[in-house]
Automatic annotation (TrEMBL):
Belongs to the iron-containing alcohol dehydrogenase family. Residues 9-174 form the Alcohol dehydrogenase iron-type/glycerol dehydrogenase GldA domain. The gene is yqhD. This is NADP-dependent alcohol dehydrogenase. It comes from the Bacteria. It is an enzyme of class 1 (oxidoreductase). GO terms for molecular function: alcohol dehydrogenase (NADP+) activity; butanol dehydrogenase (NAD+) activity; metal ion binding; methylglyoxal reductase (NADPH) (acetol producing) activity. PANTHER family: ALCOHOL DEHYDROGENASE YQHD. GO terms for cellular component: cytosol.
Amino acid sequence: MHNFSFQNPTRIVFGKDQLQQISKLIPPGSKVLLTYGGGSIKQNGVYQQVVQALDGFDWQEFSGIEPNPSFETLMRAADLVRREKIDFLLPVGGGSVIDGTKFVAAAAVFDGDAWDILAKGAKVKAALPLGCVLTLPATGTESNGNSVVTRYETQQKLSFSSPLVYPQFAILDPTVTFSLPPKQVANGVVDAFVHVIEQYLTYPVNAPLQDRFAEGILHTLIEEGPKALSQPDDYDVRANVMWAATMALNGLIGQGVPQDWATHMIGHEITALYGLDHAQTLAIVLPALLQQQRQGKRAKLLQFGQRVWQLQHQDEERLIDDAISHIRAFFEQMGVPTRLADYGIKADAVDKLVAALTSNGMLKLGEHGDITPEVSRQILQRAL
Ligand code: NZQ
Ligand code: ZN
């Protein structure tokens, strides 16, 4: 196992009727900015509950943070924060609203051009505190220090990480997920599944506990994900999916082990150029990437096939093929197609995606740094 130093400072408040806890979790006397997206929180009653909990605080709101939040919109929010001397941010929504608000937290107090945080990896030396209400289990952003932002003007989807933008608290009430459209439920399950794979399906470093954690989350998503679609009113199913998605990317399972993340980096370019949902891009790239990288990932692919899918063939090549086919079938079962062609994207996209990867510096991806743009090209060709 590799050395590591791990701290996750986010307080998780989980369960029914927990939105009211906001009033105790925000520091008294704070000047709060409630941020949200396109209005789903007004339709499902979450907004009204949050407003009730904010009674007694000096607060304002900023709405319209888009799925795949835009740099342009977020800079308007950062201006508002500075102008109104906001000192606590409260994103209420999915990954986009929370990620976007993390960027606002850093950008509002950044000395210089805030785009450098994303484009040049400029160090985030300060950020406003935030606490969040999660409405879409998927990204893990509710208890991690990551944020992904898209600059629409240049079609660049870039990320940054900082310990300063971990939410101080995250309210996870599974009942708020009942209003999700099936497509978003499925996206969330696929995203969380791929988060685990990025941290697990690499090469062995004798870290059996991390492996078992990862396999436990995968089993849970495989069992509960389809039920979230077929029994949409089942609270326990929603709760299990929600907790699994948080655990998939709150840092725990990735400690001391190699990590991949190439599926995500290639997927981000597909979203930036063609507008696909984040999880759709992962469902396309992952099976193709695993085929392409099967030698380097061989030991873990065998373990994954045996332990997660209970495959028992003697023939190892067949076992690996079946393990990858099971992933594809699971994504398809969730209703997320796994080929570029399924989304109307044709072979001419490959050159454009490889050029975007190259210009964004994605030159040595994967746990071995061996996914060059040329290897990304082969992965994308396999994904057509
Ligand atoms: O905008 P509103 O009206 O709220 O509607 C949203 C949006 O249209 C809707 N929605 C959310 N909760 C709902 C709901 N509709 C009904 N009922 C509810 N309870 O769902 C739509 C999609 O929301 P979005 O936030 O975009 O989805 P998701 O949570 O999948 O977030 C995706 C973003 O997160 C980034 C992605 O790249 C993408 O930009 N990621 C962030 C990560 C992180 N910070 O660690 C890791 C991930 O790998 C990912 O890259
Ligand atoms: Zn993801």
